[in-house]
Structures
1.
Amino acid sequence: MKPKQKTFIIILTSFALFTFTPHVFATAGGFHSSRGSRSSIGRRTSQWSDEHTSYQRYTYNNSYYHSIGHYYNNSTAYGFSPFSLILGVLVVGGIVLKSKKPMIGRQSYVYDKALADETLAEQVETNFLLIQDAWDHQNLKPVEHLYSEALYAKHQKMLTKMAQKGLLNHTHSIVIDGLSRLKQKNSSQFEIDISFVAIDFLVELNTQRIIKGNNMTRDAFKQRWTFITNGDKLKVAKIKELKI
């Protein structure tokens, strides 16, 4: 059984037990009755009154009824608390909403690099791998010509901030699995999705402690790269991480 299914069953069971537990205000169980109504099958056995309250008691076999109280009997009765119902609905609803994630899934990961324009596909792959390698070595200067001015400045700033915090992000052992969703945005700009696996981790320089990711196995990634075309040259202008 999956962990989410197990958690859902446990909470649902707890909710049921909580909701239908006998009320503590009834010694032998009970449910609310209309105030002042009488049992059509009972018979009055006693009556008393004072200046504030009039009290009548009726009995029938082993049960008795008070005109200002509750109906009690010798068998256990179960009450239904509105509060417990609301609480249960909120808990179960929260679990359902939390488990209902967007249908992105692994099916969006592509294992096909076949594009109509093979030359373009090769150029995209080459630029992608060169930029990733430069990032892994924390030196973007050799690939500055593959960047738009704005994105280059942004990535340089990110590397500087990480260095100031004593952190280093390694991304290597990359294998491109697929190119997909080639979309021409205008005459000089297009975007394309790149599916790839890589070893990606964040390490603390002073202690060499890995604080995110791992350095042993590849993880799957998918990114949407927006390129600016200038003749036969490409410059990346935007990189968006996609969920898979």
2.
Amino acid sequence: MAPELSTDEVMATAPSEVPINSRPAIVQPTAILSGPKPDAKPACPYCGRSLTHDRSRCPMIRAKDPNIIEQRIAELKQDAVEHTDNTCAHAIEALKSALLRAKKASSNVNSDDDS
């Protein structure tokens, strides 16, 4: 067994003479440290808020005001230019459907007011 070396002796000794078990361990970064932060929650692709709801309960999908939905579609189209994934395209299609429903609902309300 190798004799125990003091810190001063280890520093003064050439690296090839230092026993392997007395060299300081090199700590490598792990995937855990380089991964996403645990407090970072995914965002809803439709409303952009933290994902705490199903699509059917998304406030943007359920919105009654067509102007709000049109504004979000414009934001997503801007994001789609910057990102090449299909997430924005799917969200835009779903919001267009919601927009048609909102416009239909608002036209029915307006036609009821006229009678």
3.
Amino acid sequence: MVSYARAMTISFLLLILIVKVGFLNTPATSAMLPFENGRIKVDVYVVALDGVETMEVTNLTRVIEGAQKAVESLNMNNLDIALPFGRKWENVSSHFYQRGEHFISGFWYVHTRFPANASLSVITQWNEYKNIVESSVESVVVNAHGAVIPIPDGYTKEGWIDKIAEAMLYRNLTWVHLGGYPFYYYQMQDSNMETWGENGLQQLMTHIGKPNTKCYFPKTFEHDGMPPDCDIMSRTWWMTQAYIVRRLWPLNYTEFKDLVAMPLWPSTDSAPYLVGGAIAFKEDNNQTSFGFYIHIGTNKTYSGSMENTDSDHSRSYVSVATGLYCLVSRTARETILSEAENLINKAQAEDRTKGLDKARSLLAEAEFFDTQYGPMEFWDRIYESMIATVNAEKPPPPSTDQNIAIMALIVASVTLTGIFWRRRNNKKEERET
């Protein structure tokens, strides 16, 4: 008995050790940002270290100002998404509101809105930079040095890239690359800039099964514009200063197709280029908690009329806005999915089951679109699911004819059961005699 208890104790301690060790290399089970005073809270860090070179970035002050503008836009406008088309209005959640009457009476433009509180910190010291990558959770980190990756003391260049990948995989960190070929150059702390080449990006992408990733240098400078997908961000951020960009150092769109959470400037011709966009940084498609890699390869930005704009400011604004959207919208989707599920459970408890099949079907569609990084279809389905739920009714009581039929069925069942047992007992008595 003593040996059994001792064995159980040892097994329990081993289990705790396994869980703790496994936790360090296991993605978080939830990707929810915290709420603070009813607002979704998220931190943004701009890494602009003293004494570190920059490539494809010329003005660090304008980079910081662009990031600050993106943060202020979110705090002022909230995460605000306009659902497509006019629709009937139902007050199903505090996160939905109506905005102006549609051209057909009784139909409204419906929006979803989530208040947010983003903060911005400029990181100029090596120890702060090291600590953020090693320990921050659900944050946006902007490398203002462009194609140069700073490497702090205690790390090799490969080890530091591995640490960044770990932060994205397991602590939902979002890394923003502002321009040029990612990680093409590196600078060790208290040293000079050196060339790494294509291996830097490949070191990062090895962690998501893409060890041969390369950016392309087009033979001629083409230009790419923002697709309709970006309209989902337009109520919170305006992208007019970088509506068109020069095609430079794009990713292969086909290679990352299943991981593209937000395409910023995909190619408009047959070439599968992605000059900028948000990539879900995850090891497999079933991983539900992960960070994002924001890629911007270009060094030139233009307005919609092809006028030159301040590329340092514009790229910073767009990339930070994209990172904020990816993190905040994911928390918004998880929040509203939970509300929708609670509504259905409440209706079920109240026996309001007529119409719930439709609600559940729409909810299942919303859950699918959630795995596709929350396109407009998600918000359409979740809103319609919640409407179907609040309008669900109790099924009508059976009619008199139905009651008579049910009673007749019960009587017949009881009679047949009685006959069966009586015949069985008679046969038993005959065998005994």
